[in-house]
Amino acid sequence: MSTQACCCAEQVRKLTQQTSVMRREIKNLRMQIDGFKRAHRNQMSTLHSLLANCKKREDGEQPLNKGPREINQLEQVPIGYIRSCFLVKNGTPRQPVVCSSSRASLKIEGSVFNNPEHSLSGLEHYSHIWIIFLFHKNGQMSCKAKVKPPRLNGQRVGVYSSRSPHRPNALGLTLAKLEGITGDTLHLSGIDIISGTPVLDIKPYIPDYDSPTTRLESSISEGKERALTAEPPIMDPDEQSKNSDAASEQSSKLNVCSLMPSDSSPSYQSSSSDLTDVLTEARNYLEHFTENSTQVMEPNACEGASVKSNSFTSANVRYGHEDYSTIAAWVRSPPIRKLDVRFTANAERELREFLSCDATDGTRPKFQFMKGPDEAVAAIQGILSADPRSVYRRRRCADRLFFFTLDTADITCWFDDAFAEVVRVRPV
Question: What's an example of a GO molecular-function annotation for this chain (predicted)?
Answer without folding.
Answer: methyltransferase activity
